[in-house]
């Protein structure tokens, strides 16, 4: 039975990621009351004929065109069809669930004014894994992604349920629901706000948090194979550098390498190790510091209302406010920052991989091959890592500066938060692969060590975990399949338990 998360106030990025992974989401009573109150305010605005963007006016550059009450439902419906113009392959299950959870979270703040039936229908789709097909490309922000979700609510669009594709009408029928007839403002609220960016950003910060631990684990294994400096990660000298991330990485490395006979035997043979080994706390630590800052931004966005317009007051004194809360500048900048940090983590990992396979510096058989000349070993998989790092460098260009003008100069600045989150996830995919390569190479290096000295307890445990996924390599099978197996381990498990590094 999946875990259940109750939405009372606002979800965190970790809770969004948990729902994306399969946890059920339910609305607490406070959230339900907020949604109902906001809808009553919209109804009052409609009754009074108060002008409100997207309630009784057109949208974008048509914001000054007044829409009569008899056409407000048609406006909501038409907005979904006109905005559903995304292209490309659909988003995956996890990404779709994350966006839907963030959308429900935004409505639950109680300032959007959609009916409770809208949110309950979204919850039914989410909790039954009946997921709208969301084209992944073609939006500078969020409109096309969100419209694909909204279409299903009115019986249009498509859904994926397991391996089966259903029409929106079939999906609703399967769940015992009828297509909704949208009312005033609901079409705009369904396509508006930053849930696409916050949902994907929540996945990004959660994934980088897990991969940061795996990066420390991979670095420790590589250092044990190659390091020769006396006490390079000692607590006192590292404490002189003021960085919480650096201190955390130093602590992790000391725990991972405690009791290593291999390092004890090699200690003092080198005054300074190369930076890709010696500067692990400084580079990995900087990534952790950046991650902390980004996580704060994402959680702050999830706690914020990002719809436009918003409604407030009471049915007796309704108010509508046209702001720019749907602009995701903070998320765009944060995701660009995370993307660069993840790219740097992959870059230093690739440099360590090169040192493991390079006979000029490793002291190990060339390219970690068991038969020099006849076998190439890990020679070409290092090329793969270098290629992914180069791709990351291209992807790390800031999306938040892409610019562009839409809607006849009405939207004359664009912050590209959703594309920024999407490319951050692409970089994280590459980082995950590079770390899997380093872990496999480090395991191979242990097997080729000229010394019989023993590993540290924790690196020994890591070695056994890697070896449970891939055996010693003798050019006897495709190496990319082996790396994929290790990569699945990174997706599914943590690098260590809290008690191991306490």
From TrEMBL:
<protein>
    <submittedName>
        <fullName>Histidine ammonia-lyase</fullName>
    </submittedName>
</protein>
<dbReference type="Pfam" id="PF00221">
    <property type="entry name" value="Lyase_aromatic"/>
</dbReference>
<dbReference type="InterPro" id="IPR024083">
    <property type="entry name" value="Fumarase/histidase_N"/>
</dbReference>
<dbReference type="InterPro" id="IPR008948">
    <property type="entry name" value="L-Aspartase-like"/>
</dbReference>
<dbReference type="InterPro" id="IPR001106">
    <property type="entry name" value="Aromatic_Lyase"/>
</dbReference>
